[in-house]
Amino acid sequence: MKNVTDSFVFLGQWPSAGSFGFNTDILATNLINLTVVIGVLIFFGKGVLSDLLDNRKQRILNTIRNSEELRGKAIEQLEKARARLRNVEKEADQFRVNGYSEIEREKMNLINSTYKTLEQLENYKNETIHFEQQRAINQVRQRVFQQALQGALGTLNSCLTNELHLRTINANIGMFGTMKEITD
């Protein structure tokens, strides 16, 4: 501490005329220089420093406010997204249930349609069988009738003589004549 006070004493002892010298006591000169610089900085820089700190404080507060607003908006958007997700999941479940119901309904419609088609095919088959039976019966009747007619004609031709044949024709002509008179 003695060196610091000695340096102030030396300032008073310097000659005022023309000589210039160096103070070789580094600790004393550095301390004085630092004190002067710090004093000037505090005196002139106090306002600037407080303004800088206030500005920094305001920027930090604004950043915090903006962050809070963004956080609030993000939470709101997250809630909206969750609500949309719930709605989409409900719709998907509903589509799934409706889809299964629709599939079951279509399956039943297809089964019913197939049964109806099979029933119609069975009816067509039965109608075709009945038609073919009727046709076969008619063909058999026609053949039996033709054979009976041929047999009757053969019997008539062998038993009929010309005279009997003429009498039969005349009797039939007579019958037709009386029928014509009755209808007129």
| Share of residues in strands | under 5%
**What is Rg?**
68 Å
Q: How far apart are the first and last residues' alpha carbons, in Å?
A: 175 Å
Task: Count the E strands.
Answer: 0
Please tally the helical runs, counting DSSP H or I stretches of 4 or more residues.
3
Model regions low in confidence, pLDDT < 50 over at least 5 residues? 7-12
What is the subunit arrangement here? single chain
Helix content: over 70%
Helix-strand pattern: HHH
The global form is rod-shaped
Q: How many strands, which pairing sense, and closed or not: the largest β-sheet?
A: none
Mean pLDDT: 82
The structural class is mainly alpha
